[in-house]
Amino acid sequence: MRLLARRPTPSDALYPGIGQCRNVTTRIKFSSSDVNVLVDFLPKRRDRDFKEDRNAQNRENGRYREDKRDAGRRDHDSRRDDRTEDNYRYSRRDREDSERERRKNWDENRDKRSARRRSNSRARGGPSRRSASPRNRSGSPARSKSPPLADKAKPNFAQSGLLAAATNTVKAADGTSTVLKYNEPPEARKPPLGWRLYVFKGDEQTELLHIHRQSAYLIGRDRTVADITIEHPSCSKQHAVIQHRQIHEKDEFGGSKPIVKPFIIDLESTNGTHVNNEAIPTSRYYELKANDVIKFGQSTREYVLLHDDAV
User: Fold this and answer.
1) What mean pLDDT is predicted for residues 258-270?
2) Which of 80, 160, 273, 297 could disulfide-pair with 235, CB 3.0 to 4.6 Å?
């Protein structure tokens, strides 16, 4: 019988106890039958356990490396996010600081320019460009048109209005005075016809007023100056005036002839004057005709205008 030894393998170093019998082939030779019997003593079970342990260790090492790599990546991402936020915060703060600094420098430069311009204008002895007044075509500075001051040493013949106020002032017996709001025009005339006012309250005639004896009749609540007194509280103290005026009209032959007609004028009363239920304009003459109905303010009294030829 001969023993044939095989070459040592790396696994012999891992398992020194079985290094002498691993992969050892024993050949038994019988001379009688010339049969070779080969018996392998291989620790298959142990090799399989070794491979499984090695694979498990490799897997464990791989998971550890993966966990470590993931942890490092997470740390890197968190640090990058922190740096990004800090950079944004710092960049915004830097922008605000730079903008504030720029405005400050601009204000300082503006003040310096203004001071330099004022100093240059004072050195030249002329006005600065900013405060220069506009010039006219002749080249001389334009002057504001202010009214000339009156020389107190010279006499002033302008109308003061004191004479008119004294003329229009009516003094009462108790010492009080009232200024008239109306003056008769130059064309005021006494009428040749006998004009009358018939006063009605409802359907009942209460009064008859003759308005042909003078050229104008002042109507109002003030008994001191009124020619025709009205008691209603809605009427003004000097409410209206019936004025007879001489005007010129053309006749049938194309000529002009003078004629006296009655007019009424409202003295800017509070509640107005109505002729035939229509409000008349204030401070303007309104021509009256026979059978016209006049109402003052909110009074219900009606004044019907008639003359001798119309009766």
Assistant:
1) 94
2) 297
110 secondary structure, DSSP code: H
Rounded to whole angstroms, the Cα distance separating 216 from 262 reads 9
Cα distances from 282 to residues 136, 265, 268, 276, 311, in angstroms, run 46, 7, 5, 16, 30
The full length of the chain comes to 311
Residue 84 tokens read as 């990004």
Strand ranges in the chain using DSSP code E only, listed in sequence order: 2-4, 25-29, 36-40, 169-171, 177-179, 196-201, 204-210, 216-220, 228-229, 240-250, 256-266, 273-275, 278-279, 285-287, 293-296, 302-306
Instruction: Write the DSSP symbol of residue 188.
Output: B
The pLDDT value given to residue 26: 46
Which residue in 286, 309, 277, 308 sits closest to 296, CA to CA?
277
| Contact predicate 204/251, CB 8 Å | no
Per-residue pLDDT, averaged over 105-125, amounts to 78
Q: What is the pLDDT of residues 160-201, one digit of tens each?
A: 666 666 677 888 777 788 888 898 999 999 999 999 999 999
Task: Sort 235 into a burial class: Cβ within 10 Å, 0-12 / 13-18 / 19+.
Answer: buried
Average pLDDT of the chain?
Answer: 76
Q: Which residue has the tokens 């010339």?
A: 34
Rounded (5°) CA angle 302-308-311 = 65
Position 200, amino acid: F
Mean pLDDT over residues 56-62, rounded? 73
In degrees and rounded to multiples of 5, residue 52 shows phi and psi of: -65, -40
Per-residue tokens: 101: 């600094």
Residue 239: partners with Cβ closer than 8 Å, 6 or more residues away = 219, 220, 221, 230, 266, 267, 269, 273, 296, 297
- Going by C-beta distance under 8 Å and a sequence separation of 6 or more, which residues neighbour residue 280? 264, 266, 272, 273, 274, 286
pLDDT at residue 32, rounded to an integer: 47
- Coil, strand or helix: which one is 32? coil
